[in-house]
Design brief:
This protein is an alpha/beta fold and about 290 residues long. The protein has one domain (about 1-290): 3-Layer(aba) Sandwich (Rossmann fold), CATH 3.40.50. It has ten helices and eleven strands. It has helices at about 1-15, 45-50, 50-55, 80-95, 115-120, 180-185, 190-200, 205-210, 250-265, 280-290, and strands spanning about 20, 35-40, 65, 100-105, 130-135, 140-145, 150-155, 165-175, 180, 220-230, 235-245. The strands form two sheets. Strands 2, 3, 4, 5, 8, 9, 10 and 11 form an eight-stranded mixed beta sheet that branches. A hairpin with a 7-residue loop joins strand 6 and strand 7. Helix 8 (about 205-210) packs parallel to helix 10 (about 280-290). It is globular and about 50 Å long.
């Protein structure tokens, strides 16, 4: 009976395209440019000690949305590491940030998102005063982007409700997209109905065009453990012991690509092209950047 009810709710979520407001792209706020890499035996500990650099322009009045990865309820690296999330919350609390929201919309096969959150067991969020924002039924905005494959992109209205967006993603291979890093994480803001279009054709190029609608202020890529093959829900796990922090979306993806390519080669898997600009995703990202200019 529960499975039947879940399927019905999933259909309602996907087909709920009523009351969508007009929106505008949500770009980065003015702030500090960041490019950091933490690696070694305990990169999370190193990152925890660098809160002053990462959140240099945050203060007690700053409201924050942390976009996590809940594509599925499967354990890290398939979804957000509770340890990583709690470390970020500690860092924000230490600088006095009080208004924090943790949000996402799960993959189509795993909707509704509240079920995924329940399985993940984020009980520790309460002690930090953070609230969970499930995008499934939230307000939606239709943003004109003038892309080549997307003319409009429908995103959660939550992108406008906070001063800063932290995009917390995992570093993984992906069976259809090739890889999933910072830009691919933005799919979690996207209306489930439009995700079907996303996966219909030109997937890599469509993912790149999400950057025309929303640009997070800080991108944190958790690459301590990664899927070097398979993904996004299950795959071959490798230790990478690396965390990237970057204010530039494309730069965060380039660093992630290099790390994944090196580890795939190390494990005897099919090589990714050494030059990321030969990849359809990065080629298109550059093309649409030129369109913006």
């Amino acid at each position: 009976m529960k499975n039947i009810l879940d399927r019905i709710e999933r259909k309602i979520i996907v087909k709920n395209t009523f009351f969508i407001e007009k929106g505008v792209p949500r770009m980065q706020r003015a702030g500090t440019e960041i490019e950091l890499c933490f690696s070694g035996r305990n990169p999370l500990e190193s990152m925890a000690g660098s809160g002053g650099k990462i959140f240099a322009d945050f203060d007690s009045s700053t409201s924050v949305l942390i976009k996590i990865s809940l594509n599925s309820p499967n354990p890290y690296p398939a979804s957000t590491s509770p340890e990583m999330l709690e470390t970020i919350l500690c860092m924000l609390r230490d600088i006095g940030v009080k208004k924090i929201c943790i949000g996402d919309c799960s993959g189509l096969a795993h909707l509704p998102t509240r079920k995924v959150i329940k399985k993940k067991g984020f009980d520790f969020l309460k002690k930090y005063g953070a609230r969970i924002c499930v995008f499934d039924y939230g307000g939606w905005v239709n943003i004109p982007v003038g892309g080549i494959y997307f003319k409009n992109i429908i995103l959660s209205k939550s992108i406008y409700r906070y001063d800063r967006i932290i995009n917390l993603s995992n570093l993984k291979s992906h069976w259809s997209a090739g890889f999933t890093f910072s830009t691919k994480s933005l799919v979690g803001f996207m209306h489930p109905y439009q995700r079907r279009i996303l996966h219909r054709d030109h997937l890599q190029e469509r993912i790149a065009e999400l950057s025309l609608a929303v640009r997070p202020d800080i991108n944190i890529v958790d690459g301590r453990k990664i899927f070097v093959d398979g993904g996004p829900d299950d795959g071959m796990v490798a230790q990478a012991n690396t965390i990237f922090v970057n204010s530039d979306l494309m730069e965060a993806d380039l660093k992630s690509y290099d790390l994944l390519a090196g580890l795939r080669k190390k494990h005897g898997l099919e090589d990714l092209d050494k030059d990321p600009y030969n990849n359809r995703f990065f080629k298109h990202f550059i093309k649409i950047r030129d369109i913006e200019k």
